[in-house]
Amino acid sequence: MRMAIDLATAAAEHGDVPVGCVIVRGDEVVGRGANAIERTGEPTRHAEIEAIEMACRTVGEKFLDDCTLYVTLEPCSMCAGAIVLSRLPTVVYGAADPKTGACRSVFELADDPRLNHRAIIRTGVLADECAALLSKFFATRRQEHAPAVPAEAPAPAASALVPTLLLVPVPIGNLDDVTKRALKALRDADVIVCEDTRATGSLLRHYNIVPKRLVSNHEHNERERAAEIVRWLREGRDVVLVSDAGMPGISDPGYRAVRACLDAGLNVSALPGASAVITAVAASGLPTDAFAFAGFPPQKKGRRAWLEAALMRPETTVIYESPHRLASLLEEIRAVAGADRQVVVARELSKLHEEYIRGTAGEVHEQLANRPSIKGECVVLVGGAAEA
User: How far is CA 382 from CA 3, 243, 299, 301, in A?
Assistant: First the structure.
């Protein structure tokens, strides 16, 4: 129920009536939801409906007959019907709703063979906290709609008049690495533009953030999305741009959106945060007084020429590469720069299996070649030509 209260609090922050719902099977949370009527514009998006739909996707079944539903407010008639259809056997709610009393009345009806379902109803779990959340929400609403007292407002700063696209870095692995400013920006955003809604959705759920709007921005729609971002900002919406990991726009989608906003006379700002490049360089043991970030090498055409140019640099060079092409990249580094060039492979940064493999190009290649497989995101650092 405590998790349901957190979801209800997040819903209130977005203007929805504070109701949160969590569905549990054993010790596992299989569904969660918060009222999303205001942010979606759909009157059916109640917390229970959101949670039941997610639980059915998680379990892979339309019946949740081995689950328990926790909700902060007694379900309305529509949600009670959804509970019947999903065959939830146990319903626990906090505050009672004297206007409908729907949940208890539905399940105190005489057995109906067409429904073939009865549920155990428990109430009063953290009821005072659940009721206080509702009371505070409606008291604030009444105060907001009270006649305003005329007052002379200070003139806004000139910079505040220009809409700003906010770039928000997210963790490169460990979800605890997110900053407080990043979480606040994600909670306050009218639109969160992300590389993959599934990846960003997992982060938001981890921190009980209910997005007002979550849209994708990837290599196939980035050009069209950039124009939409400009339009949303001009409409006065707060727009946040994130990628799957780290700083958006660094070898990830984001550049076109930034360029479009600047060309349109809008502001662009970035929060500081996690970056695989900086993390790997700092712990590599290679010279850090200067380094060059080269990004991903071409997969086919021009790859050799690209590597020759990158590895002629006098400073440390940082390269991104996918795990299934890592072995061939190390072979190419050895061929272009020599087997004695210093190389560091940083793998799974900030995650449980974080690893730094240090040595010459020949030694690192030999060590990885003996592994049956290589998994995880990889950063490859190569000592400078002058250092060699």
Answer: 46, 26, 19, 22
N-to-C CA span, the chain? 60
User: Quick one: pLDDT at residue 149?
Assistant: 54
Average pLDDT in the chain: 87
What Rg, from alpha-carbon coordinates, does the chain have? Answer: 27
User: In this predicted structure, what is the pLDDT of residue 152?
Assistant: 56
What global pTM score does this model have? Answer: 0.58
> Is residue 219 annotated as a catalytic residue, yes or no?
no
Catalytic residue chosen out of the listed positions 28, 42, 48, 235: 48
d(CA 19, CA 75): 10
Residue 254, classed as helix, strand or coil, is: coil
Which has the minimum average pLDDT: 38-47, 142-151, 161-170? 142-151
